[in-house]
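Hi R.,

Here are the chain sequences for the assembly we discussed:
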Amino acid sequence: MPEPRPSPAHSVLGSIVLIGVVVAGSAAAFAYTAGWLSPERLTPWKMLQALAPPSGPALGHRRNHAKGICFTGVFESNGSGAAISRASVLAAGQYPALGRFNLGTPNPDAADASVRVRGMGLRITPPNGEEWRTAMINAPVFAASTPEGFHELLLAAGSKDTNAMKVFARAHPEFATFGAWARNGPWTGSYAEDHFNGLNAFIFTDSSGADHAVRWSLLPQAQIIPVAQDDLEKLGADFLKQEITQRVRSGPQRWTMAVTVANPSDPTADPTKAWPEDRRTIDVGTLVVQRIEAEADGPCRDINFDPTVLPPGIRTSDDPFPAARSSVYAKSYDLRTAEAKDYPRIPTGPKP
Amino acid sequence: MNAIRHHFAPLQRLLHWLMAICILAMLFIGVGMVSTIMPKYVPLVSIHKTLGTVIFVLALIRLVTRFYYGAPPLPVDLPEPMKLAAELSHYALYALMIGMPLLGWAMLSASAYPAELYGGIYLPALLPQSDSLHTLLWNAHFYLAFAFFALILMHAAAALFHALVRHDGVFAAMAPVPIREEATQVEYRVAE
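And here is the predicted structure of the full complex:
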């Protein structure tokens, strides 16, 4: 065993200072990485705070799109998508589907007619362990170009200042298309008659390795009957849940999944910009909704419809939203699962 | 082996320094990714899952090498509390190296998330979905990560204390390259 050599006192002090600097420097680097030294960083927590109503979030529920109802069914892939993606879910076949019709509100008790944005979370599971999760809305474009812009929109929408939205709209002209749809777009009396648009661009990779930028939409096969919002307000607060439960009980409801392929010059990083109508669109299959179940004890309750859960053959593009949504949804999931006792697993809605 | 060894075996030292880099990267990626909504979030999560799996496999190999090669004895003159701290911290480090990846994997399973690694490799689910288990595992994974980092800082401080203040060969035992120190050079020749 080597004998310890005593060090002179001044060198010991220097060494201890050096050790202190190494430890403190490492701890500071860690704190910086964690964002503790950067109060301006837009964290998932800040996004959730901006989403929450003034009275605070509804504990146990999703922090946005909080009101919803579960469905199960199948995705009938017709095989046409295999030309542009090697994802097994796009090979011809029938794959189990699980999803959730929802309303874009942090309030799980909101009246259905009061919520402009309707959504669908969807998970398709081909048999090999892969998964395709997506969360779509009925708007034709998104309200913000960037997650930072979306955060500003949330702050403006939640602001007590009545001018805040005007100020936001002036600073963010890209909001205009969404804003026009929100004011003048048609309403329907049923989830079964709604379009659900992915809005974000993703990359499909085909079997030759070539990439294709795409967006996808679910187009209702049910006949669309526009209804005035005023007429919807005369219905009960939960008419959408009751209607879809009734309708699916009388027969499965179908949506065609249409995948639109971008031209090289089309913007993929900005979901406020629709691609021109003439772009190549491929019908890749049909979503068949066969059964509706209440959320409280339903199969969709504990699923996070994270848009970055993608099978090999589909990946995120330069669109910044899927990453931001994934990060924020994960935080929402962590919170609401920890609050599960505040949302008892007792169905309260219509019986399927 | 009859003579007392003063150095860890080359394989042990390789594993130690390789894992040191991996684990530090892992901890920084972990605290970084949960605080961002930027596009880098997606690759960071993917790396975190993949690197976690790599660390788990390396930790198991390392545990085997530890049983096979053992460890050089601590200096006889090291005060008992420091010896105890050294031994306990090594148990804790092994427990965290093996436990943290398992907690992370189980946490993904308990939230019905596919454990997809880089390159489209899917790990099977360890557990069924469960709110209460997810919360428990998430808390354990989160708070133990900070404990892990604190332990690594203590470990590094102690290693530097041995190297710079005590000069007792403890640091040289795990040094990535042979250290030209009078106290250890002789041992090196003997070892080789």
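Confidence is low (pLDDT under 50) at residues 182-192 of chain B. Chain B has one domain: 10-151.

Let me know if anything looks off.

Best,
T.
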